[in-house]
Amino acid sequence: MSHPDTLIAEDLLLLLMDDEKGRLSASSQAQPLLGGALLVQLALDGAVEVEETNSRWRPAKVEARQVAGTDPDPLLAGAWETVAQKPRSAQDLVSRLGKGVREQLQDRLVAKGMLERRQTRVLGLFPSTVWPAADRQHEQQVRQRLQDCLVAGAAPDARTAALVALLAAVDQAHKVVDRGALSTGEVKRRAKAISEGAWAAKAVRDAVAASQTAITAAVMASTAATVSAGS
Q1: Could you give the CA distance from residue 17 to residue 2 in angstroms, rounded to a whole number?
Q2: Are 139 and 109 in contact (CB under 8 A)?
Q3: Fewest Cβ atoms nearer than 10 Å: which of 3, 22, 133, 198?
Q4: Distance from C-alpha of 152 to C-alpha of 157, rounded to nearest angstrom
Q5: Would you say 130 and 27 are in contact if contact means Cβ atoms under 8 Å apart?
Q6: What is the CA radius of gyration of the chain?
Q7: CB environment 116-134: b (16+ within 10 A), e (fewer)
Q8: Closest CA to 190 of 167, 209, 211, 213
Q9: What is the DSSP secondary-structure string of 66-95?
């Protein structure tokens, strides 16, 4: 079994980091993606929900909900407190919650023995920190569950489906599995079907869908800003 104390955001980070080089692929997407992962985990825990709205022009707001009898993870507790300050749109929250969280997650994964912190130099001159894999057992278990769902067609549990939805938001779902005889397009379609499937209560699916849309929008805005600055 996987570690019961790993967050979805930690699993996501492990999947997207190069085990040997210790660097994150798609690092420019990390802030909204990891913030979205915290928001999705809060939704799975019943700690947030998305308001109903009929307006095409006003984004739905995410609101905090009290959950009794739980001893929350400190990172999740901090995320919940941010949501609880006032209702905010998912797009606002994924960037707000994701600020600085990558470094916190890497430190946690080092403490759990899954990553190693290593100092290196870029071009032999500039100091840099990399985070290669130290123990891949948990990551391999997570990948196997994704493989079972995205390639073999198994029904996902709620956590795995949420992870698929987050990966699909940044077009990475097809890159974390061995596609076998399937095309990239087929794996992407399966990821989309899982994301939109009836794997959780409507309130949770609404929050996941809002997070997906927000992550995609934030990544597109960041990419457009980068292109504009370079032209």
Answers
A1: 18
A2: no
A3: 198
A4: 14
A5: no
A6: 18
A7: eeeeeeeeeeeeeebbbbb
A8: 167
A9: --TT----HHHHHHHHHHHHS-EEHHHHHH
